Amino acid sequence: MSLVKVNELLQHATEHHYGVAAMNTINYETIKCAIAAAENEHVPIIIQFYPGFDRYIPLNFISYMAKDLARKASVPVAVHLDHSASYEIAMSGIRDGFPSVMVDGSALPFEENVALTAQVVRAAAVFDVDVEAELGHVGVGMNLEDISNSDLFTNVDQAVEFVERTGCGSLAIAVGNAHGDYVREPNLDFDRIRELRRAVSVPLVLHGCSGIPDEQMQEAVNLGMSKFNIATEYFAAAYGAYDNVIQATGHNRNGVAMYLGAQKEMVEFVTSKIRLLNPNKFTL
Ligand SMILES: [Zn+2]
Fold first, then answer.
1. How buried is 220 (Cβ within 10 angstroms: 0-12 exposed, 13-18 middle, 19+ buried)?
2. Distance, CA 179 to ligand 1 centroid (Å)?
3. What is the C-alpha separation between 193 and 153, in angstroms, rounded?
4. Distance from the CA of 134 to the center of ligand 1, in angstroms?
5. How many angstroms does the Cα of residue 246 sit away from the middle of ligand 1?
6. Residues 54, 82, 128, 243: which is the catalytic one?
7. 54 has catalytic annotation
8. 255-276 and 214-222 helices cross at what angle (nearest 10)?
9. Residue 44 three-state SS
10. Looking at the whole model, is its pTM more than 0.85?
């Protein structure tokens, strides 16, 4: 169906009460399998890339591949650059063809986060690029403080002010979620999600979805969150899929067969996340 804008896709998801899987990808297979799962399920999907992985693959390669596959897909696919920690990283994503970028100033004091985000939004608008921002501290799941100290979570009044002053297109919030593996089962702050959804005009984004229990993910969808970032679990699923093929074929050293053979399992993983995020069974 085509390459679509992230904001357009998230507005649609918010209106139709489903969550969009935002799959972190690193190469051809991870992009291809994520799109294939969305096509099978007849729902939109977001393909995204963490800029720190440019040591593995340059931004322009991944954006080209993702956009090319998106244009040929039978469902709407959006392409997005994840966590840009500076103006320069966000701009390099735009330069290298990403139609949407995240600027992450969440580690900065509020005023500095506002200034950085507004600067990126202003420049991105020239190129018609969507911008996701973050307010509150989405830390690492292995740090108990990051998932339990509500002082680090997104403040509702600040979020309203932040969105108004920056003009960001979507907002990543901290509500007990964090990146990577979790030191213990996370316990999302649903009251805060409810208040943020009521108060903030733009679509809301949940980072660190790997390891959040299914029922909490679905509750977040029901409360109106729209973008769900999945990285750690997808990378693990891909790794496991390769390992399974290698074991099953007795280390026969057929690399092409390994890549092809792993795809079914990778598609199944993404399919399971898409279904989880679509409790009302929306289809296009
Ligand atoms: Zn994140």
1. buried
2. 6
3. 10
4. 9
5. 31
6. 82
7. no
8. 50
9. coil
10. yes
Which pLDDT tens digit goes with each residue over 70-115? 999 999 999 999 999 999 999 999 999 999 999 999 999 999 999 9
Q: How far is the CA of 267 from the centre of ligand 1 (A)?
A: 22
Across-strand partners of 64?
none
- What confidence tens digit (pLDDT) does each residue in 198-256 have? 999 999 999 999 999 999 999 999 999 999 999 999 999 999 999 999 999 999 999 99
Neighbouring residues of the ion ligand 1, judged by CB less than 5 Å: 207
Rounded-to-integer distance, Cα 17 and Cα 166, Å: 26
Among residues 188, 186, 223, 231, the alpha carbon closest in space to that of 204 is found at: 223
Helix (H) or strand (E) segment spanning residue 267:
helix 255-276
Residue 34, amino acid = A
Q: Cα–Cα–Cα angle for 205, 206, 210, nearest 5°? A: 145
Query: What are residue 262's phi and psi, to 5 degrees?
Result: -80, -15
Go through the domains of the chain in sequence order and give each one's CATH number: 2-276 (3.20.20.70)
